[in-house]
Amino acid sequence: MAWLGVVPFLAFIVAFLLWPAASIVVRSFLDQQGRLTLQNIADLSQPFIVSSYIYTIELSAVTAAVGGLFGLLLAYAITVGGLPSWARAGLLGFSGVASNFAGIPLAFAFIATLGQLGLVTQWLKGMGVSLYPAFSLYSFWGLAITYVYFQIPLMVLIMAPALDAMRRDWREAAEGLGATGWQYWRFVGLPILLPAILGTMALLFGNAFGAHATAFALTGGGSQSSVVTILIGAQISSDALANPGLGNALALGMIVIMTITIGLYSWLQRLSERWK
Amino acid sequence: MSFLEINGVRKTFGQSVAVEHFELRAERGEFVSFLGPSGCGKTTTLRMVAGFERPSAGHIRIDGVDMTDTPPNKRKIGMVFQSYALFPNMTVADNIGFGMRVAGRPRAEIRARVDEMLGLIHMPEFARRYPAQLSGGQQQRVALARALAAQPQLLLLDEPLSALDAKIRLSLRQEIRAIQRQLNITTIYVTHDQEEAMSLSDRIVVMNRGRIEQIGGPFEVYNFPQTGFVASFVGTLNVLPAEVVDAGAGRVRVDGQEIALGKPISGGAAGQRLSVAVRPEIISPNGAHGPQANQLRGSVEDVTFLGAIVRVRVRLGASAVHFDVFNNPHLAPPAHGDLVTLRFPAESCMVITEARNH
Amino acid sequence: MKRASFWPWLWLALGAAYFIIPLAATMQFSLQAKRGTLGFTAYANIFRDGNFFSSFAFSFQTAMATILISVLLIVPTAYWVQLRLPQARRLIELLTLLPFVVPAVVLVFSLARTYNGTPLTNSREGLRVLLTGAYVVLSFPYMYRSVDTGLRAINVRALTEAAQILGAGWPTILLRVILPNVLLSVLSGAFITFAIVMGEFTIASLLAQPAFGPYISLLSSSKVYEPSALAVVSFALTWASIGLIQFLSRGTPGQGQMAGPR
Fold first, then answer.
1. Which CATH number fits domain C55-222+237-249: 1.10.10.10, 3.20.19.10, 1.10.3720.10, 1.10.238.10?
2. DSSP per residue over A190-236, as a string?
3. ipTM, two decimals
4. Per-residue pLDDT tens over the stretch B94-116
5. Of A237, B101, A267, residue with least CA distance to C209
6. Taking the mean position of all CA atoms in its chain, how far away is CA B164?
7. A 93-152 residues inside an 8 A Cβ radius of C
8. Which of A243, B75, B121, B125 lies 20 to 30 Å from A81 when distance is taken between CA atoms?
């Protein structure tokens, strides 16, 4: 009887999330006549699809690593690093906004900065350094630089509390036992934080992997763009692959990778909490 | 020259003074406690000895070497924290061996020393466990072993038993003292628990509001407190408002009854108000102290049964006096309303003039 | 706290440069629509465009509907789970986190394919229902976490029982006892939902809805400076929403999210 109270919520999430997602998973294994098949999965091995997945995974991994590392340094600076409280409040406040500032406007911000006519591009040109054509905002590294803008704040927001939770006693105990600052981080600090760091980086990976609007705005959704989300998006407006089954399999691949990523994240998150 | 010398140490945080005029000399192998209420500066002083805080003025010497500006990781000090502060990512063995590991000692030596320390704390079978798998008492024993493993010249303990429950507290207290005697290591022990300080220490430094109130052995501090603060903080105390009758003869009046203090009241004049303090365990309701002892008459107001002892409150007009009697199953304790005569020797009275407090 | 040394300051300076330069560049870009001078021409152009207002209004209405539905679903559910169904907590938590596993583009793809040929995809009203439904799903992780934390901070059971003893019925309990006590949490969830919906592009564009996100994107194919002005407007909107959350929930850590308008 008590379960009746959660029926509206369950019904809604089934209708708008579970049922559609499950139906896509099932349809990935059906052919056009509704018979069971593995052909759609096998078709994923086409070179342009494989390269799209690899491209997206590389982009997500690079931005998770770079954003994660730099976000960690920033989180360190405002917590253990001892920066004054205005810097801490400022960075945390900004991160709250910036982690929500993504998509089309973010892409425009970077076009205005590093595009052909961008502020920094022009400024560098004035100093005799021309970014283009060696660099392009619409290339892998251009996308990466843009993605990092929403990756760093997420890392800062998650790691700052974790760094705050590092007990001063641990550091003092290590120092009292003769450890240098570096030895403390090497043997105590980093091992304790490592699950949280890696877990948050997994989350950043998923964050970039599922991103669509930013890539779309930068690459225009053209055919040369290789991000998986854009490939999937193209299946809705027009069945670009002329093969609905393959589109379903593309989405399935995405769900599988995201499930692994989020699973990894929650596993590492639990690991990092076993010491609390 | 003493082994540990703390000379004129002072510590301020912004406007507020945490520690002032701190002077202490401790000999090799001595067990010294810093005792006082929270915020009295005892932990700050300990942290200055450890090197976590820099004194605003003064010097700290260990074995003749000025350590005032030496960072903590160069001082060769072992420290035990109230919160244990074991490294959660390391096993018990790795925790104990940490100091030697960062010092770059050979593996075999570390292993041998860790085994030795595990034996010392009676936990040889726990080497592979993680701190989260140990009880609080076990964690604190490991923390003690870790502090001692690298053979520090000084052992610092910051309220090491406060987070533990009463039974473990007692047994660990004895274990700490036994190990300290065995290794003959100079030890500073910070606590707010006077019983702990009494039972462990060679000497006690009683602190209040950043200053030393008294330094002395447990017997001395308990029986001959030099300030009102020490008298009231260490042990329980009856404090009775009194009026001087004859300063030269050392006689005062408490609630209309005259008692002797056994010594002249220096600088006192008849009619002056002061406080007289008497420990509850000194007072007895019958003739135990002989006919020349002080007497105060009153009626029993409250009886509290504490197990081994029974604490009785007696009303004397405006003030009240507590006294203790040992529990005796064959003797009924005093009852509410009983009229009693309290006796205590004149020498056991402590005169408290509040001016000495600051 | 010890005084910071050189390195933390360096990281902060680098971070500040990376975060501020693109914003400054966008600002500058949006002001130079008239060659050689700085001015608000681009902004003026936007505000003269009827599509700006219609798409903004469309997204605003959708955001309000999303918030309303999300609150109506989440508050009673979170309340009920705490009061009567604690064994369902893990399941509900897991379900509300699913939008992280199913990215927006996969969600809209699944919805479009699954409901293909039904009134949901055949009519304008149907598509709008689909859009709002997807947004409500996207709002779940934030709304649930926020409301659940708020409910945990008050003693739901004791408050409910106290109200019942005093003769209150369920509507009174929910509206006059529970809701006022978790209002801040609800508002905080509402503002983040608002920020997500106003900036969302993927779902709206793939369902061909005349929302604010697709409008910004569309404008960029025909204009040079106006999109930057819109980016500034959009950032100000996000800043205002999140700033309000932070103002309302001072002292609690900020919210990051990964199911919004990436």
1. 1.10.3720.10
2. HHHHHHHHHHHHHHHHHHHHT--HHHHHHHTT-TT---HHHHHHHHH
3. 0.89
4. 999 999 999 999 999 999 999 99
5. A237
6. 17
7. 93-106, 108-113, 118-120, 148-150, 152
8. B75
